């Protein structure tokens, strides 16, 4: 079951990009359980930041940037599982984590249907609207 949170996310640093934010679209704070796997392992963690371009997985079990991951998760208000493939584009650990940022990985969606992108976009826009009120 997905849990929605409208709390603002604290800033995070990006070790691989020296703090640069490569996002093309804004993210909203939303807590969703995500099951994902690499070639070698399977994991179940949480994501708090998601948009139609990707998400951030909070985890201490980091994999290197460039690693392909297969993901599945439910969006709030949906009974359908969203399945996609993505690639780790950034890894957050070390000094940025001790400064209050979460340890984890930024994953960019490689294979996401236009329908699923629209579903994510609608939820993100809805959360932003609720936060602005």
Please describe the structure with a list of short key phrases separated by commas or semicolons:
disordered N terminus; 6-stranded antiparallel β-barrel; 17% helix; single chain; alpha+beta; Thrombin, subunit H; 133 residues
Helix content: 10-25%
CATH superfamily: predicted glycosyltransferase like domains
Shape: globular
What is the count of structural domains? 1
- State the major sheet: 6 strands, antiparallel, barrel
Assigned CATH architecture: Beta Barrel
Q: Please tally the helical runs, counting DSSP H or I stretches of 4 or more residues.
A: 2
Distance between the termini: 25 Å
Query: Averaged pLDDT, please?
Result: 76
CATH fold name: Thrombin, subunit H
Unreliable sequence segments: 1-20
Estimated radius of gyration: 14 Å
Number of strands: 6
Element-by-element helix/strand order: EEEEEHEH
What is the level 1 CATH name? Mainly Beta
Structural class: alpha+beta
What does this protein look like?
A hairpin with a 2-residue loop joins strand 2 and strand 3 (54-58). By secondary structure, the protein is α+β, with helices and mostly antiparallel strands. A 6-stranded antiparallel beta barrel has the order 1-2-3-6-5-4. The chain has one domain (28-132): predicted glycosyltransferase like domains (Thrombin, subunit H, Beta Barrel). It starts with 27 loop residues before the first strand and ends with a helix. The chain is 17% helix and 39% strand.
């Amino acid at each position: 079951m997905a849990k929605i949170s409208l709390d603002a996310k604290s800033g995070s640093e990006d070790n691989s990009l020296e703090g640069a934010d490569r996002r093309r679209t804004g993210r909203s704070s939303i807590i969703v359980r995500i099951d994902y796997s690499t070639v070698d392992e399977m994991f179940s963690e949480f994501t708090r930041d998601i948009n139609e371009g990707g998400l951030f997985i909070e985890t201490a079990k980091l994999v290197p940037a460039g690693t392909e991951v297969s993901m599945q998760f439910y969006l709030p208000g949906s009974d359908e599982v969203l399945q996609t493939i993505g690639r780790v584009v950034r890894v957050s650990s070390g000094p940025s984590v001790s400064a209050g940022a979460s340890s984890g990985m930024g994953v960019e969606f490689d294979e996401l249907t236009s329908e699923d992108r629209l579903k994510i976009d609608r939820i993100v826009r809805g959360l932003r609207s609720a936060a602005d009120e």
